[in-house]
Specification:
The model has no long low-confidence stretch (mean pLDDT 94). The termini are far apart. Strand 4 and strand 5 form a beta hairpin. The protein is mostly beta strands. 0% of the residues lie in helices and 52% in strands. Strands 2, 4, 5, 6, 9, 10 and 11 form a seven-stranded mixed β-sheet that branches.
């Protein structure tokens, strides 16, 4: 079992930055691949970024490439999502997820955080 707790969401103006954090705890938490997804009410949960357990493999959705960066600190069992040049269309609830294998499909992930709201005003 892995427990995930996100933090760092909030309200920001377009063009601004936020950094989301996801702290993992539980058995072998550092050995899990981790990912970020986002979801608007009434819409599908969309892939944002993922990182392998070692941190060597990083994957970012085309919609955020060049603006968002995913990183992992295994000593702290924490994954980060640095979001720069935010746009109103980035507004969503952002969820952290973990599983043994890195993937871009939300259905592949067994463990989820509670979500953190990101709102970008124009």
């Amino acid at each position: 079992q892995v427990q995930l707790v996100e933090s760092g969401g909030g309200l920001v103006q377009a063009g601004g930055s936020l950094r989301l954090s996801c702290a993992a705890s539980g058995r072998a938490a550092s050995r899990y691949a981790m990912a970020w997804f986002r979801q608007d009410p009434g819409k599908e949960r969309d892939f944002v970024a993922a990182i392998s357990w070692s941190g060597e493999g990083q994957y970012v959705a085309d919609s955020v490439k060049g603006r968002f960066t995913i990183s992992k600190d295994n000593a702290k069992n924490t994954v980060y999502l640095q979001m720069n040049n935010l746009k109103p269309e980035d507004t969503a609830v952002y969820y952290c997820a973990a599983d043994h294998i890195v993937a871009m499909n939300w259905g592949q992930y067994d463990y989820w955080g509670q979500g953190t709201q990101v709102t970008v005003s124009s």
